[in-house]
Write a structure and sequence with these properties.
alpha+beta; 5-stranded antiparallel sheet; about 55% helix
């Protein structure tokens, strides 16, 4: 039967059981590795390092060398004629005046047995009873003891040790036990350790040799597999493993002769023909090696399957089946998120207390002492994992249902805080946010310190809880950074939108998705402003288009009958009319018709100039020559109003500019006509053409501009700003006593700007000044267009 055909509850139960089962397998693998002598070496080291290269082997080898030196040191103390002498004195004590006693091996054994001790064959003592009524000489002074053979005293002298007979007897038995164990295992017994220590008297040539293999040589020692060789004549030693530094001083201290004529040779037969501590250590190492590898396999397999089942549980959590998209919440999942976190935290804390006071102590009754620490860690970790797993799945179901944040106290508080801060200024929001950030950080840091300083459950739990608090602190700070980053990103978008609006993109709209709080309000305001600007711009364009169309249509409609009127006036003039009155009427009619025609043409010209709907024919023009031609054409006209024209121009050189000849002539004509109409009679009109240098361009070349200036004194007060004079239908003569449409200066400005020139007006009291500037062309040898080309 396939798993997909099982009910969802059965699938979840089976996956949960498998998850916990293989989690236990993973912990078993960790136990095999943690409670292993090879823990810390790594899987590669365990697999590739032989026993002879381990620290355990080196430690055993160095211990045996130490035991051999200890045996050599006590040979004269315990032996006579190369055998243990039971009658040899091992202790001399003084218990009072003239009360000094000697104790042999048999005396000490009898005394200790009487005091309730039992001795083994190798003189290992163990207390088995505490008999009463056994005479005890009490404390005394040690004159000499086999445990400290280098110290000898006669009588009672300063520095003597005061102790009980029982205490000093046990010390001597310990020394005797170590001596006899070394003798039994490394001297007369079968051992894989071969050694030879030789001392030579440099004067007599006498030898003192201590060995369990008289045939041992440096070559045979190296052939054994592991060896060490040291000679007193050299500062260096030859070995293929780590030897203790204390070996050399011990070797020198046991030298009965003067000088450095001694050497040490030792080796371990790595074929292990005899069963001893080395062969047993190798077998134990191989067993631990296999257990470590097995633990690693269990760790990988158990962890992998536990992870797979966990992922399956994560996928199916809250669903009735794998294909079901609806999420079903348990009753407890409908509480607030913080309530669930606190409940599972309290449940975990109670479980940890029960684990500490009950399960950990029960494990002490079942497991060996070396496993107690690991068992406690496993139990604490299991409780924390199960509690965390229950909390995780509760939060996961809430997340899938979309209630993790919406049904939390933090969400409710944030909404209230958002409402509170909505009406606040940016500075107020920043102040409140910083105080909240400081409060939460202080609370988390204080909680970390409290957990570290006050929690006594276990070191593992301490580290876990501290880690949780530190992670919470880090998560909170990252969350604050995210909010600040998002706020900055929103402000960057708003700043970019303002820049684009300022650049003329009035139709630009911000995407409001993702904006919150006052940034959302600001973004909505910018969108509304953009929409308003776009609407106003469209209305303005529409209005200007309608005006232009109206002016064009009206001008066209006016020009047709106006042309007929002028034609009929000319026809009437051809008749032989003698009546002066009718002739005057015809003259007035012709003047007004011509004025209306001029106004119509100005309207059309102004409309085209303002809209840019003019085709320019750019060519090279000498501005100085054009001004002189214009002066000649207006000289007679100015004289009719007694206006004197004063011209200042560069006669010796030309100022070549790039412009449309007809349009440039229209600009000058309008300015001259304006001066003719509004200048005070019997005054002067000043015209100047000059060349002004400009800052160098990006290419480093010098630039210059040709400037035309016309100045006159107004006949009427100029109670108007200069910029208003360039508007349509605005006249300097407010009383309108002079002829003019009010379009001349507006047309001149538009035509100047269309040709990339600059048009400026200045008013200083009754002084009127107009200034027109164009860039001078660099190459003066171009073909010139004069004023004659304007027609």
């Amino acid at each position: 039967m396939k798993l997909s055909y099982l009910p969802a509850r059965t699938q979840k139960l089976a996956a949960s059981v498998l998850h916990l089962l293989f989690l236990a397998v993973m912990f078993c693998g960790i136990g095999f590795m943690y409670l292993n002598d090879n823990f810390g070496t790594g899987i590669v080291g365990v697999k590739n390092v032989p026993y002879e290269e381990t620290e355990a082997f080196s430690a055993q080898f160095n211990r045996d060398l130490g035991n051999i030196f200890h045996y050599i040191e006590y040979l004269d103390v315990f032996e006579n004629d190369d055998s243990l002498d039971a009658s040899k004195i091992l202790l001399r004590m003084t218990f009072g005046p003239n009360e000094t006693k000697d104790f042999a091996v048999t005396d000490l054994i009898s005394y200790l047995e009487a005091r309730g001790y039992r001795l083994t064959e190798d003189f290992l003592c163990a207390k088995v009873s505490d008999p009463a009524g056994v005479p005890d000489p009490g404390e005394g002074y040690v004159n000499w003891s086999a445990s400290e053979p280098e110290k000898r005293y006669s009588g009672i002298s300063p520095g003597m040790r005061r102790t009980t007979l029982e205490e000093i007897s046990l010390e001597i038995m310990d020394v005797l036990h170590r001596y006899y164990a070394t003798y039994d295992r490394l001297v007369i017994g079968d051992s894989n350790l071969h050694y030879k220590i030789e001392y030579r008297d440099p004067e007599s040539g006498a030898l003192s040799v201590y060995t369990n293999d008289p045939e041992l040589t440096p070559d045979t020692a190296k052939a054994l597999g592991t060896y060490a060789y040291f000679s007193g004549d050299s500062l260096f030693y030859d070995t293929n493993f780590s030897i203790a530094l204390s070996t050399i001083p011990s070797l020198s201290a046991n030298n009965p002769y003067v000088g450095n004529s001694f050497y040490l040779l030792a080796g371990v037969d790595t074929a292990y023909p005899f069963r001893d501590v080395y062969s047993e250590g190798r077998e134990d190492y191989i067993r631990m090696q296999n257990r470590y590898i097995s633990g690693f396999v269990l760790l990988i397999c158990g962890g992998l399957i536990a992870l797979i089942t966990l992922l399956f549980l994560i996928r199916i959590s809250g669903r009735q089946s794998i294909s079901d998209r609806s999420i079903t919440l348990h009753g407890f999942d409908r509480t607030t998120t913080e309530t669930g976190i606190l409940f599972f935290s309290a449940l975990t804390a109670v479980s940890l207390w029960i684990c500490k006071t009950g399960l950990v102590r029960i494990s002490h009754l079942i497991l060996p002492e070396e496993s107690w620490d690991f068992a406690a860690r496993v139990l604490y970790t299991a409780v924390l994992y199960l509690g965390g797993l229950l909390l995780f799945f509760s939060l996961l179901r809430r997340y899938k249902a979309g209630t993790l944040w919406s049904r939390s106290l933090a969400c409710a508080w944030s909404k209230r805080l958002s409402i509170l801060l909505t009406g606040q200024s940016f500075t107020g929001r920043l102040t409140v946010s910083f105080l909240g950030y400081l409060t939460v950080n202080t609370a988390l840091i204080s909680l970390t310190w409290f957990v570290w300083d006050r929690m006594y459950v276990s070191r593992l739990l301490l580290h876990l809880l501290s880690g949780v608090v530190i992670l919470a602190c880090a998560f909170f700070n990252l969350w604050v950074f995210y909010l600040l980053y998002k706020r900055s990103a929103d402000l960057d978008l708003i700043r970019g939108a303002v820049g684009r609006l300022a650049g003329g993109e009035t139709s630009y709209q911000l995407d409001l998705d993702g904006f919150e709080g006052q940034e959302l309000t600001l973004a909505e305001g910018i969108n509304n402003l953009s929409a308003g600007l776009e609407t106003a711009l469209k209305e303005k364009v529409k209005s200007e288009r309608l005006k232009a169309d109206l002016i064009t249509n009206v001008s066209h409609d006016i020009k047709t009958p106006l042309t007929s009127i002028l034609n009929y006036v000319n026809l009437i003039r051809r008749e032989d009319i003698q009546d002066e009155k009718i002739l005057r009427y015809l003259e007035v009619l012709e003047q007004k018709s011509q004025r209306l025609k001029t106004l119509t043409e100005d309207l059309v010209e102004a409309s085209k100039a303002s809209s840019g709907n003019i085709k320019l024919e750019i060519s090279d023009i000498d501005l100085v020559e054009l001004v002189h031609q214009t002066n000649g054409e207006f000289e007679e006209k100015f004289a009719s109003r007694h206006l004197q024209l004063v011209t200042t121009a560069q006669e010796q050189e030309s100022l070549i500019i790039e412009a449309d000849g007809r349009r440039l002539w229209r600009i000058l004509e309008n300015l001259y006509n304006n001066a003719f109409k509004y200048a005070m009679e019997h005054s002067r009109i000043y015209v100047e053409v000059s060349k002004e240098l400009l800052p160098a361009g990006e290419d480093g070349q010098e630039r210059a501009q040709a400037v035309f200036t016309i100045k006159n004194i107004s006949a009427t007060p100029l109670n108007i700003r200069a910029d208003e004079l360039t508007e349509r239908f605005v006249r300097g003569d407010v009383s309108r006593t002079t002829e003019g449409s009010g379009l001349g200066l507006a047309i001149a400005k538009d035509l100047t700007e269309l040709q990339n020139g600059r048009f400026d007006l200045y008013i200083d009291g009754d002084l009127f000044k107009a200034r027109v500037a164009f860039l001078v062309k660099q190459r003066a040898e171009s073909t010139l267009q004069t004023g004659d080309d304007r027609l």
